[in-house]
Amino acid sequence: MAKKKKASKKKTSVSNIDWKNVARLILTSRAMDEKEENELVPNKEVLYQFSARGHELGQVLLGSLLTNKHDAASAYYRSRPLLLTLGLSEEDAMAAPMGKSGGYSDGRDIGVVCNKPDSDGPKVLPMAGDVGSQYTPAIGWAQGIEYRKNVLKEKVYDKAISVILGGDGSVATNGFWSALTIATTQNLPVLFYIEDNGYGISVTSEYQTPGGKISNNLQSFNNLKIYDGDGTEPEEAASLLEESVNYVRDRKGPALIRLTVPRLNGHSYQDNQAYKDEKLLKEEQKNDPLKKLKDYMVPDQITDKTWKNWEKKAQDTIEAAAEAALNRPEPETTETTKYAFDEGEIPIIGGLAVEGHEFPESAHEPKSEKQRINIVEAIRRTLKYELETNPKLMVFGEDVGMKGGVHAATMDLQSQFGEERVFDTSLSEEGIIGRAVGLAYSGLMPVAEIQFRKYADPATEQLNNCGTIRWRTANRFAAPIVVRMPGGFAKCGDPWHSMSNEVFFTHAIGWQVAMPSNAEDAVGLLRSAMRSNNPTVFFEHRNLLDAKYARKPYPGDEYIVPFGKAKKLREGDEITIITWGAMCERSEEAVDKLGISADVLDLRTLMPWDKEAVLNSIQRTNRCLIVHEDNKTAGFGAELSAVLVRDAFKYLDAPVERVTMPDVPVPYNVKLMESVLPTTKRIADRIEEILLF
Fold it and tell me: What is the C-alpha to C-alpha distance for residues 129 and 112, in angstroms, rounded to an integer?
């Protein structure tokens, strides 16, 4: 595709802009900042404040152009003027920084970390406190627009767009570059709106991007229209924004608009801007867009007296809103732990439950075929059935398309269901997970693959944010996604492909964690995950993918395994062995080797885990051994041990013991690997020690 030339600053008609409303919104935003900075923060009514002074004009103009009810903006902590333009009430806007009840987080998040899940109007996706994480979820929303329009044939998504707001500091982040790559290579309806105030807190733009001007650096990008201008000049900003929004809305491709703006206050209230000299501070005040808007309107459109009346009205409005916000009750402390997971209350935005999606019938009892299959085939058949019966399900990741995945679990799925439903991604885990979050917001069920557990590390920010979305927004938004993630040792080890580390995801708030040990459970747990209202990490152990031990008959297309239900592999009364994943086989081998009577429990899911089954077993056996592949220190076995020492103490005749990996990475050499893995012998030796205690 031919390169897009830089757009000119040629003005288009801006006669249809309601400048009176633009002025009202900017004056309202400015009055909010003044009220917080001069009174509420000093009085400690607001504890965390970010001023939008200087950024208001472009945001208000942009917000006025978001008119499709399926438009979405993914913004950041200096974006309150946009929210006001899209209908955020003054009282909610004032109450949130006070941490009062109600509003967009019910006191759970920083006051300017907003969201707006309007069912009948443009949405503002949940913001985050980390810089750059707003980009890739917005890409997912844009792809969701195209999917619903082109695949599901929902015409109401025609002309809808996704807009991403970011400062000049954010263009240095992984999220920005990942989103830019996806948007341009996939030709998605995305507008990147960059507010360049010259500083990332105290660090100048030259340290964020070479030359300090991101619009110059992107001239070589194919399929990207670039706009550049002054975000303080009313007509210029309005013209460029109207042109850029229409360009994306008309499906000509993604675009980026960079507007220069002054940051008239510090990064936050505590920032005194001592790193700026007096000349620069005066120049920034001179470029105040509010002053320029007044000069633009007075006296040609209104009188100075009218402007002063507007100022007074905005101040009075904010005084009343602040008073009402201050009088709101504090959030209910008994509700603080609510919404870490789905509790049956459907959110406003996100996931299949919002639209009343109905799944085929399910069953907890298998209808097993005769032939045994491996875990790879079990996963493939389960994905195939869900793709057949759920048109909103998508499967994607690096190499999942024509190649069929590096472990062959998606073989032939793209040829059967098409590239819009089973597709490859760029090599960016940040992009894979962030995109999945946005797709979930748009009402789809994304099943993303991370090739190996270690490779999930670059996506940690998106994974953590995904898990807390429901809690942070007090159930206004949710992002149920499935992340398939192979890991663990195989024919050999190594520090990169063989990491287990499942405990990381049990500690990540809001995530379900499944770790099947056999093909039957893989089917039931994966299907359960794809029909869940919670995000799920589905861990596929590399050593089990084609292992004889893990082969089981396919349990049928209706088979479901509920999360939080352990499976008893062996039944006995001398000791309870708690394990999961590849350690199930070795634990059973140890029991056979010793010829003892033991309960061997495969937890199957670690979040939630079946506490009841474990306690019931220990009440009979009075002894417990935990076996897992992950490192010992702070491994999930430590959590189990802590619970058992308290809740099973009176039943125990011996200390709760663990057999785990030591605190080292998995070695490559096979003998070295086996020297640190929990082997059958090590497990058997520890069982004997416990029985002799």
Answer: 9
Query: How distant, in Å, are the alpha carbons of 8, 441, 687 from that of 675?
Result: 66, 46, 18
Write out the DSSP string of 442-506. Answer: TT-EEEEE-SSGGGGGGGHHHHHHHHHHHHHTTTSB----EEEEEES--SS--TTT----THHHH
Question: DSSP of 7-32, one letter per residue?
Answer: PP------TTS-HHHHHHHHHHHHHH
Of 451, 452, 439, give the one whose Cα is nearest residue 488.
Answer: 452
171 in Cβ contact with 134 (< 8 Å): no
The CATH number of the domain covering residues in 567-692:
3.40.50.920
The reported pLDDT for the residue numbered 268 is: 86
- How do strand 575-579 and strand 624-631 relate by DSSP bridges? parallel
- Collect contacts of 244-249 with beta carbons under 8 A, ≥24 apart: 244/7, 244/191, 245/62, 245/65, 245/66, 245/161, 245/163, 245/191, 248/161, 248/189, 248/190, 248/191, 249/68, 249/159, 249/161, 249/189
Measured distance CA(424)–CA(580) in Å, rounded? 31
For residue 197, the cross-strand partners are none
Tokens of 606: 């670690």
> What gap in Å lies between CA 273 and CA 671, rounded to an integer?
59
Query: CA-CA distance, 568 to 358, in Å (whole number)?
Result: 32
Name residue 46's amino acid: V
Q: How, if at all, do strands 552-553 and 372-373 pair?
A: antiparallel
> Among this protein's residues, is 497 annotated catalytic?
yes
Return the structure tokens found at 644. 């058992």
The type of residue at 173 is T
**Of 497, 507, 541, 628, catalytic:** 497
Q: What is the pLDDT of residue 4?
A: 44
In the chain, the largest separation of any two C-alpha atoms, in whole Å, equals 96
* Domain 353-553 falls under CATH 2.30.29.30: no
Adjacency order of strands within the sheet including 598-602:
567-570, 598-602, 575-579, 624-631, 657-661
Tell me the average pLDDT of the chain: 95
Q: What is the pTM of this model?
A: 0.95
If we measure between CA atoms, which residue out of 549, 575, 579, 553 comes closest to residue 566?
A: 579
Instruction: Fold for 20-328, please state it.
Output: Rossmann fold (3.40.50)
Token digits of residue 365: 């009892």
Mean pLDDT of 661-666: 97
DSSP 354-408: GGT--PPP-BSS----SSEE-HHHHHHHHHHHHHHH-TTEEEEETT-STT--TTS
Same fold, 353-553 and 567-692: yes
Domain boundaries, the chain: 20-328, 353-553, 567-692
CB of 212 closer than 8 Å to CB of 169: no
Contact 63, 245 (CB under 8 A): no
| DSSP type of residue 566 | -
Residue of 579, 582, 570 lying closest to 546 (CA atoms) = 582
* CA separation for the pair 605, 60 (Å, rounded): 47
- CB atoms under 10 Å from CB of 542, counted, come to 22
pLDDT at 429 over 60: yes
